[in-house]
Write a structure and sequence with these properties.
This protein is of the alpha+beta class. Strands 22, 23, 24, 25, 26 and 30 form a six-stranded mixed β-sheet that branches. The termini are far apart. Residues 685-745 form a coiled coil.
Length: 804
Amino acid sequence: MDALNQKLCKLKPILYRGLSTDISGNIQFANNNTLIYPIGKVIVICKLSEETQQYIKLPRSDRKINIISISPNKKYLAVAEKLSNPRVSVFEISSRKRLKLLGNPLKNCTSDEFVCLNFTQDNKYLIGIIGEPDWLLLHYNWEKGRLESYTKAIYSNNRGTVQHICANPEDSTVIVLVGDGLYRQMNVTDTMWRQYGFQRAENIPLKTACWLNVDTVIAGSQDGRLILVKSGELRAVYKAYKIIQIEFEATNDSQKNSVTLASNTVTDEEKSGIFEVKCLTAFSQGFAYSCSPGIVTVFQKLNPFKYVRKNVISVMRSAVGDLKHVEINQINHIAVSPAENLIAATTHRTEIYTCKILTEQDLDKVPYVKFDIYSNGFHHGPIAAVSASVWKPLFITVGAIDKTARIWDYDTCKSVLIKDFPNEIYSASFHPSGLYCLMGFTDKLKLLLVLIDDLRAVREVDIKCCTLVSYSYGGNIFAAINRSNIEIYCAVYFIRLHLLENHQQPILSIVFTYDDLAMFVCDNSGFMYKWIIKDEKRIDGYTCSGSYTDLACTKDGLCCCTVSSDGTLKETIKGEVSRIVKLDENKALNTIEMSNSNEMLVVGNENGTLYTILYPLIHPPIYNQFHMHTVAVDKVIIAPGDRKLISTSKNGTLCLWNIISGENKNFRGHNAAVMTDILVSVNDYNEKIILINDLKTRLDEIETEHAYILQQISAGHQAALKEFHKGYLSTVEDLKFRIKQLEREHLVEINDFQSKLDETVNGHGDELEKQTKFYTAKLIDQYERFETLEQKNIEITEEYERLV
């Protein structure tokens, strides 16, 4: 059994695409190069430069994430889940480990969710607001995992609701709460919460707020107003969609853009909510908000008391399904990078948008700059079909709502082609060559060539709303569902070859055998058949207690495995049910896929779980479970070579997995070399050749023109150079003559100086000799006098000695 367990392959997710648009705070920056966003119960940590992903997976349960909040130091992430007893998980982003699990310890509290969540500036405390009917403020010391204090979040008369909470950027004991008819600045001292300052907001449906500095708050309302509160006092009220600059120190009377709090100053258009202020976000160099669908306004701080409108950024995406243009482009959340040069935003569409901010923008000439769609965007809504090529590392996905087809490269994990269509798309199948594909539209089933930058329809079949289409393994024929019938067509001539009739319910799955001679079919009524295609003969029929949802078969077509809504996996061999397996979660099984090596089955269930099951089946079955999807997995395909697996779920998420065998080696199910060639139409090719020739001709003309201009310039410069050279030579000769003249003058001066020096030396010598003789004679004379006096002194001394 251990040896069999070692053979069982494992799955490693490398790309998870989607976005949960109903989660508050669904886009965050962990650093300047890392975005954090939720998909179901998975938090994706994505590096922007490399587009690599890491994941934080929350425990599987019926709880649903409703809030994400990141700490000011970008090290911790708080995730709130709602159910009968709401809770908050605090994760360390670097390790992706959960550090604390915080619940609501208060008894008699009936609320099932946190409506707001925010870290304090010191990263030590977490403040959450429990929603209706309790409306309590919970103050956690999350590092110690305990509730420090709590208080009523709304007024004592139960007036107002809380929409947003924001902690002071410098003082961890001060917060601001805003909501419908609610504005409260509060501070905590020894577990006691007290309100201070302005609070008369009963006529203002406030939705969002932020701190511009330690004592200044700006809050936005549903009717398009911005209120400025400084030091607990209301200073000004502005129209958010009109304001150009804000000055704190100016008085209300001198501020041209300020208005009063009186409700009669709000127009009916403003009351409709079209100018609702959302996502007020402050950063050290300014603040940003949205007050129109798809529009983000960025203000820059010029000095501590003055802000001016710097950038206006737009998300303009077309309507999708039932969501109109105004609805789908509503800004859900805004995040600013720590370097404060990049902004990220989300809307109701499952895409992330980024743009540089605080750049130069002439708002008079360029009223809007556009957001960039991160990683080319993604499908909005369910994915109708997914299919992989054999010769190329490509697979195609089509959106059931957004009418978009995307071709992906599973080696680079990037979408390489995106095509929007005017009609709904129901199905798709990639030809093994990867050069063309079939797609089922509202009016026709069409064959489209896969060009370098386009999908071009070239042939069509008169099948409306074809919900399922599939190429055979050889690619020479394809099967298409037409209501309750299966039509087999020649892939070259588009001639119907066979008609397989009498299916009672909508057909859910069709699988060709590897020799393309037979086909397995299952429908929603609980029947599964095997068809001999050339004879149009149905054999080996089976039924199940529930309804079959998908099937897969081995290469030889002798074994077929099916999954059904009653949670059973069945294996049939040569017309007999050999095994029935009940997997442990007892959930409906939605999809199944057989590996190309026939050594593994992959099954997806309604709970989002993927099973990799060792094949051939034994009792009990050996399998592993993998969790990424939150809702039912509706399709799983294994890429040729058994290297990659693609799974999609009913909420439109897509996950790309690496398949790793028990020996840490990838499977090798086929030996086809990867093809990099593409199709180019003759017309496009000829147009490009004509364009290249025109450009070559133009280039030759430009080169000739430039050569002539260069010749003229060279001639002019040559003449100027000759004149300059002449002047240069003349100047050189003049300088040489001057040098020689100066040398002669210098030599004369040197001779004069030498003569004068000799005369001076001779004169000084004679004078010195005279003085020497004079002083020598004088010295001799003095010496003789000295000797005379000395002799006289001796004589006197001798005489006095005699007298004595």
